[in-house]
Amino acid sequence: MNIILLGPPGAGKGTQAKRLETERGMVQLSTGDMLRAAVKAGTPTGLKAKAVMEAGQLVSDAIVSGIIGERLDMADTETGAIFDGYPRTYAQAESLDALLSERGRKLDYVIELLVNEEALVDRVEGRFTCAKCGEGYHDKYKLPKVDGVCDVCGATEFKRRPDDNAETVRTRMAEYRAKTAPILPFYEAKGLVRRVDGMADIDEVTRQIAAVLDGQG
Ligand code: AP5
Which residues bind AMP (predicted)? Predict the structure, then answer.
């Protein structure tokens, strides 16, 4: 099964994609994570993407569709992929169709996480992760049980994304409204869109997504 998780910054795409990986053996393809890895490694793609990402704007369609195409050639994606943060423009949506059909695959669902944007600024601004294992935390909603120590791996280093400040989050949301939300009709016309309540608690969102994937949503 191949699905897209669609929603603005902080909607919970990454949170739910990780759960689907664990629970269903699907593979998360997050263009944001791939670009951040390229920035960290200092690759030519990373060098091009860094400033654009820090400004909260979109990296070029050619770069992101290129990295998704390379990733789809890896065998682990053959049994099912979760597209997290891709596609983000009409051109990327068309590229994804082509990339999948060239490999004899197809999209099963586009799951839109319905959210209240104002609440998301708070979600994104407070987010931080363990620098060693990547476990996610939040200043208000999920602090480590022991102050300064990761619950999962015991590490004491944490990190925050450079684009997780209120000003950049608002630019990212504006990009979503202007360029990403308009791809919904493309998928509506194919009958692929399903909606879940992204403001419900994390377990309830997982349950609603499971109902869709199990054909009950
Ligand atoms: P990307 O990394 O994709 O960021 P994003 O879309 O802005 O999404 P986030 O990762 O911020 O949010 P999320 O929906 O995954 O939420 P999460 O689960 O973490 O992209 C970053 C940048 O890369 C872009 O701005 C762009 O520059 C570039 N880029 C990436 N892809 C691109 C593309 N295709 N084309 C062009 N450029 C691209 O949750 C957030 C927080 O909320 C967490 O703390 C979590 O614990 C909490 N939370 C989650 N769900 C709930 C809930 N139901 N209730 C309460 N709290 C919750």
Answer: 31, 36, 57-59, 85-88, 92, 161, 172
**Alpha-carbon dihedral sign for residues 88, 27, 136, 54:** negative
The domain that holds 191 is classified in CATH as 3.40.50.300
Catalytic residue ranges? 13, 88, 127, 161, 172
In a domain, 192, yes or no: yes
| Span 69-117, pLDDT tens digits | 999 999 999 989 999 999 999 999 999 999 999 999 999 999 999 999 8
Ligand 1 atom, smallest distance to 164 CA? 11
Binding-site annotation: residue ranges for ATP? 10-15, 127, 200
> Helices 166-175 and 117-125 meet at what angle, rounded to 10?
130
**C-alpha 150 to ligand 1 mean position (Å):** 21
Which ligand 1 atom minimizes the distance to the CA of 36? Answer: 23
